[in-house]
UniProtKB/TrEMBL annotation:
Record Pfam families: MFS_1
Domain Major facilitator superfamily (MFS) profile: 1-167
Key word Ligase present: no
Lineage start: Bacteria, Pseudomonadati, Pseudomonadota, Alphaproteobacteria, Acetobacterales
Transmembrane segments: 30-55, 67-84
Name assigned to this protein: MFS transporter
Signal sequence extent: none
Keywords: Membrane, Transmembrane, Transmembrane helix
Keyword Transmembrane: yes
Length: 167
């Protein structure tokens, strides 16, 4: 269970960093669109806004609901990013991805709550390690996938294979 929560937290936070090594490829698909430079900024601003606005709700609500809800919206935002017909739509999708990626910070206390008192510190450390691993590996994965499958390929990982091939 600890590994699963660490992986979920790492995968969630990684979504705000995938776009950074792909910007050159994205700009090639949307030539002349100055808004492509706003893609990583939108993701980071969404993340910051969510830390301020949504994260405190985890203390007021049952943590399972916000975690599941944010993952569902995150998957939808990633699908929108993969199918974005224009740079402004991709910027909007990146903003929503940022808003929902704070689910990683909700998973950490949830995992601590689920752990036995003897394992609580180790659990928090492992899940936090998952967050840091997600941050560090996301740029490498984003660059690799976009170099071999295009920038949409990175976002298509959340879309069932048959949908991702129709375009």
């Amino acid at each position: 269970m600890t590994f699963a929560t660490a992986a979920a937290a790492g995968i969630a936070v990684a979504n705000i960093y995938y776009n950074q090594p792909m910007l050159g490829i994205v700009e090639g698909d949307f030539p002349g669109a100055a808004s492509t430079a706003l893609i990583p900024t939108a993701a980071q601003l969404g993340y910051a806004a969510s830390l301020f606005l949504l994260l405190p709700l985890g203390d007021l609500l049952n943590q399972r609901r916000p975690i599941v809800g944010q993952f569902i919206v995150l998957a939808g935002a990633l699908a929108l990013a993969a199918l974005a017909p224009s740079a402004p739509v991709l910027v909007l999708a990146s903003l929503v991805v940022g808003l929902c990626s704070t689910v990683a910070q909700q998973i950490v206390p949830f995992a601590a709550h689920l752990a036995s008192p003897k394992r609580r510190g180790a659990t928090v450390g492992t899940v936090t390690g998952g967050v840091l691993t997600g941050i560090l590996l996301s740029r490498t994965l984003g660059g690799f996938v976009s170099a071999h499958g295009g920038w949409r390929g990175m976002f298509r990982l959340v879309i069932p294979w048959r949908w991702g091939r129709r375009r």
